[in-house]
Amino acid sequence: MTSLVIDIPKVPALPVEGEAGLFPVRRVYCIGRNYAAHAVEMGHDPSKEPPFFFQKNPDNLDPSGRFPYPGKTADVHHEVELAVALKSGGSGIAVADALSHVYGYAVALDMTRRDLQAQAKDMGRPWDTAKSFERSAPIGPIVPATRLGHPAAGSITLSVNGTARQSGDLNQMIWKVPEMIAYLSEYFTLAAGDMILTGTPAGVGPVVRGDRMEARIEGLAPLVVEVV
Length: 228
Prior knowledge:
The structure is a single chain. The chain has helices spanning about 35-40, 115-125, 130, 145-150, 175-185; strands at about 15, 20-25, 30, 55, 60, 65, 75-80, 80-85, 100-110, 110-115, 135-140, 145, 155-160, 165-170, 195, 205, 210-215, 225. It is of the alpha+beta class. The protein has a single domain (about 25-225), classed as Fumarylacetoacetate hydrolase, domain 2 (Alpha-Beta Complex). A hairpin with a 2-residue loop joins strand 13 (about 155-160) and strand 14 (about 165-170). It is globular. Pfam families: FAA_hydrolase. This is FAA hydrolase family protein. Keywords: Hydrolase, Metal-binding. InterPro entries: Fumarylacetoacetase-like_C (IPR011234), Fumarylacetoacetase_C_sf (IPR036663).
């Protein structure tokens, strides 16, 4: 066996509700503008756009319940999302077979340095500094689909300090979970441990240190995150 020149980095892993073991994370795919009202609030016409994806890093996922306000920004926004955890994958997955690859679901936040994202858009550059910074994806425990089923509808909300900010329904997704899995598998070889963040409803907005975010998706435990 070939030796390694450094120790193997720790594999990011997430808690699973009701299980002692952890879910290891391989990749994190995020779909952009997957709710029509959010696409409109960001200045886009969703009827004219095919799906597009960007990535976060596996170790951006953070189940600690604390979000450290990042540097190099003055405008960090919350985006509540349903996260999908895959137990298997492949290439060219059919829509009809897509849900057989899902292990479970979780509540997640796609925290975004909105000012850096706007600069990147203006310059035609990637969004990495806006989306893929440390601990930029707070997440709750994964609930296995064997217990939850596959939610195609249900409320998705976020409040800050008790005030409602975001409100929608999973059935408002432009691209549904099976379609996202199938579409991604045309461009990437999906595999066990992959996560998909499925987009956010309208109402995204800024947070500051000291804020308390509470994200809810029907059927899943609330995700409470303190901005520190």
